[in-house]
């Protein structure tokens, strides 16, 4: 019995270390993105701010996953219970994709809905203004899609890594 408990604690420590490595990788990539002014561009180009909501969901979910893995150490759970506790993470990962698509659709609405309202094709200034409005909507669409895809992928990588370790450790 003591060997089994010791084995479970060692396995949870291994899972926690892998999660920590993934979190540190996310932080490093976020630092690189900050260095290249990605967040400034996102703020300027994404008028809906959905991209920042998605990034907040990513950060919160990553910390939640770490808390779940840490709680495995306190609770002696079966592998089925441990895997079941992570099911919400898959929903959240898909929600990041959906939020990115909502931003895409919103960006296209902004692009097409406002660009042609006062368009006079004989006036160059009017055409330039329409192109500026179109580019703002298009940048919103592309940035939210990018952030949604990256966030969803990051959460899924964490979930797959944790679940594989649980199956390997307990199975």
In short:
With 171 residues, the protein is an all-alpha fold.
User: What coarse outline follows from CA principal-axis ratios?
Assistant: elongated
Radius of gyration: 22 Å
- Helices, by number, come to 6
List SSEs in N-to-C order: HHHHHH
Low-confidence stretches: none
The helix content, as a percent range, equals over 70%
Q: Quick check: average pLDDT?
A: 86
The biggest beta sheet is recorded as: none
Count of individual beta strands: 0
* β-strand amount: under 5%
Class from secondary-structure proportions: mainly alpha
> How widely separated are the two ends?
17 Å
Task: Describe the structure in your own words.
- This protein is 87% helix and 0% strand.
- It has 171 residues and is mostly helical.
- It is elongated and about 75 Å long.
- The protein contains six helices and no strands.
- The chain has helices at residues 2-35, 38-45, 50-74, 79-84, 87-115, 124-170.
- The model has no long low-confidence stretch (mean pLDDT 86).
- The relative contact order is 0.17.
């Amino acid at each position: 019995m003591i060997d089994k408990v010791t084995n479970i604690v060692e396995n949870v420590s291994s899972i926690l270390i892998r999660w920590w490595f993934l979190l540190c990788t996310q932080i490093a990539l976020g630092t690189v993105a900050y260095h290249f002014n990605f967040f400034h561009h996102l703020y300027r180009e994404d008028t809906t701010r959905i991209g920042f909501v998605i990034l907040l969901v990513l950060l919160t979910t990553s910390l939640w996953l770490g808390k779940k893995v840490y709680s495995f150490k306190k609770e002696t759970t079966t592998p089925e219970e441990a895997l079941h506790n992570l099911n919400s993470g898959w929903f959240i990962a898909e929600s990041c994709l959906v939020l990115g698509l909502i931003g895409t659709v919103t960006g296209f609405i902004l692009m097409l809905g406002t660009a042609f309202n006062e368009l006079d094709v004989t006036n160059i200034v009017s055409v330039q203004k329409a192109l500026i409005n179109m580019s703002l909507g298009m940048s919103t669409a592309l940035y939210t899609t990018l952030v949604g895809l990256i966030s969803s992928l990051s959460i899924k990588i964490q979930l797959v890594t944790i679940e594989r370790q649980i199956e390997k450790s307990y199975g």
